[in-house]
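Complex 245.
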Amino acid sequence: MRILLTADPSAAGDLVAREIARAVDRDPATVLGVATGGSPEPVYRSLARAGVRLPHATAFALDEYVGLPPGHPESYRAVLQRLVQLPLGLAADRLHVPDGAAADPDAEAAAYDARIDEAGGVGLQLLGIGRNGHIAFNEPGSALDTPTRVVRLTEDTRRANARFFTGIDDVPERAITQGLGTIARARRLMLIATTEDKADAVRALVRGPVTSDLPASILRIHPDATVVLTPEAATGLSEEEFEAA
Ligand code: PGA
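Predicted structure with 2-phosphoglycolic acid bound:
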């Protein structure tokens, strides 16, 4: 696992955006794994600023809330349409997001892994990290080989995401999330953390064991994983633990 320190969120975004641009240059039909939340936003802004276009690429979202009405502006489909599909010219039918309004969310979750496999698997997967060490909506305690499935969100995660809604009561209680086993099959993982509230989780990721108590620790056993940090997110790490980017 490589750990890179960048100056600020914008520099972190530029670094990851460059990797995505290279992947798309090499293979315009590349399959990207896209994340939502505050952490990856600088990546999408940087790609748009650089004029990167994804007309032949495919993107798979990490997760989606269960139970929001279709078209809700904070559904991850709507967020990814705003941040990725429209600005970067991704074809609408190649943005894949689990359907959180499906009549049978369990069947929808199972079908999602099959769709990723049919597309040839994810090449480069973007990730954020939760304050509790979650990735996607795999909360602590998720087995390391889980498939895409329906999960219940922790109170802490719902509180963290309340900023996107009118309050915590409006944050859905369940989601469909790619599993840790699903995420680990992506050929390359890039995790971004830019804020100090992630520093404890980042330290546990860097120093602690691989454990389902810290779902992000699957990066430690992945053959091509990079963690991109700002000084705030790297608070408490010492210099020999990261490379300057
Ligand atoms: P954030 O969330 O990027 O909005 O901080 C990341 C996560 O919880 O996975």
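The two ends are 14 Å apart (CA to CA).
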